[in-house]
Amino acid sequence: MNQETAGPEAPRVEPVRNFSVLLSPTSRGARLARLLATEQLRSWELPLSPADQIVAELATNAATHGRVAGRDFRLTLYVVGDTLRIEVTDTVGDRLPRLGAAEAGIGSGRGLLLVDAFADRWGVTPGPAPRKTVWAELSLVPGGSVPAPAESRNVTTR
Predict the structure, then answer these.
(1) Are 108 and 114 contacting, i.e. CB atoms less than 8 angstroms apart?
(2) Which of 30, 45, 88, 132 has its CA 20 to 30 A from that of 57?
(3) Helix (H, G, I), strand (E, B), or coil: what is residue 18?
(4) Measured at the alpha carbon of residue 151, what is the angle toward residues 78 and 91, in degrees to the nearest 5?
(5) Collapsing DSSP states into helix, strand and coil, what is residue 133?
(6) Reduced to 3 DSSP states, what percent helix, strand and coil does the chain have, rounded to the nearest 5?
(7) Euclidean distance between CA atoms 106 and 91, whole angstroms
(8) What's the CA gap between 91 and 109, in Å, rounded?
(9) How far is 154 from 68, CA to CA, in rounded Å?
(10) Alpha-carbon distance 91 to 51, whole Å?
């Protein structure tokens, strides 16, 4: 005689969604980063804003300040639980971004101010040499905040 027994219900495990692409460190590569991120977020049925703006700013910084001929930058998007993490990795690890006040009359220098305003958390993870990764996290829960990741203890953050 066969009997089926029902055990305790297994906890539901949410898959980690991720997307990663190498792009040329050019203005075209930065624009493509924003377009690809927008399409990926749309396919995951996640809000596009402000993530698209954060991707645009970080990718532009990688193409402008992290540019090395022949070396691409990487855009990575992760969704873990209720958090979207945006990472842009370039190959100029010795030039870490710093949040500073934008000067009047200058058309640039506001990118990290926007990232700081839009992201729940952001920071820089150095290495492996010669790389650095600038990351930003957004809570996908309205009014929620992103818990501090363990790695933030040893990185430059806002």
Answers:
(1) no
(2) 45
(3) strand
(4) 70
(5) strand
(6) 30, 25, 45
(7) 26
(8) 20
(9) 26
(10) 23
What is the spatial distance between Cα 14 and Cα 16, in angstroms, rounded to a whole number? Answer: 6
Look at residue 111 and give its three-state secondary structure.
helix
145 pLDDT tier (thresholds 50, 70, 90) = low
Q: Return d(Cα 46, Cα 73) in angstroms, integer.
A: 24
158 Cβ contact list (under 8 Å, min separation 6): 99, 116, 121, 122, 123
| Residue 67 confidence class, pLDDT cut points 50, 70, 90 | confident
Overall average pLDDT of the 112-129 stretch: 93
- Which band of pLDDT confidence, cut at 50, 70 and 90, is reported for residue 70? confident
The owner of tokens 């009359």 is: 105
Q: Are the C-beta atoms of residues 78 and 18 closer than 8 Å to each other?
A: yes
Distance of CA 128 to the CA centre of its chain: 18
